[in-house]
Design brief:
InterPro entries: DUF1003 (IPR010406). This is DUF1003 domain-containing protein. Keywords: Membrane, Transmembrane, Transmembrane helix. With about 180 residues, this protein is mostly helical. It contains four helices and no strands. α1 packs across α3.
Length: about 180
């Protein structure tokens, strides 16, 4: 048998396992703890606990034959202590599970941020390369602007030529009042 043999390999058949009487699955206990913690943090829990305490006190003060927990209410205090002894670890377990989820979420956010940053930097480099490449070539807008400038220049030259032809034509017709 090789040294790296593991009983949990998928190609290895497993023997019959005894079914456990209690299953201490960490996730199942954690889910239960979160449910208890959520319930303990609600207003309905506080309302029901207050009603329970008021009924407990009224039954122990008001009725002589119902007096199972006399005035210092030691049994009620014992019930609250037991509840607190179980509630505190359950709340801490729920908080630890939430911390684990937050840590996983934070790591995922960091990974996505790093990917987004790398993608952004890549696109910025590509855009800079395109700008450099386009800067060396004549663009359509640049060519259109230059052609418009040349067209304006040609129109001005044609206008000046027409003015000179008109002036020459006037000088041949007769004396002009204008000095040359």
């Amino acid at each position: 048998m090789p040294d790296n043999y593991a009983r949990t390999d998928l190609d290895t058949p497993t023997g019959a396992r005894r079914k456990k009487l209690f299953s201490f699955d960490g996730d199942a206990i954690g889910v239960g703890a979160e449910r208890v913690a959520r319930f303990l943090g609600t207003g309905s829990y506080l309302l029901w606990q207050t009603v329970f305490v008021i009924i407990w006190i009224l039954l122990n003060i008001g009725g002589m034959w119902w007096n199972w927990d006399p005035y210092p209410f030691i049994l009620l205090n014992l019930a609250f202590s037991t509840q607190a002894a179980y509630a505190a670890p359950l709340i801490l377990l729920a908080q630890n599970r939430q911390d684990d989820r937050d840590r996983v979420s934070l790591n995922e956010d960091r990974r996505r941020t790093a990917e987004t940053k790398a993608d952004t930097e890549f696109l910025a480099r590509e855009l800079a390369g395109l700008r450099i490449a386009v800067g060396e070539n004549v663009t359509r807008d640049y060519l259109r602007h230059e052609l418009d400038d040349l067209t304006d220049l040609l129109h001005r030259i044609e206008d000046k030529l027409e003015d000179r032809e008109h002036d020459d034509h006037d000088s041949q017709d007769g004396p002009s009042d204008r000095p040359r």
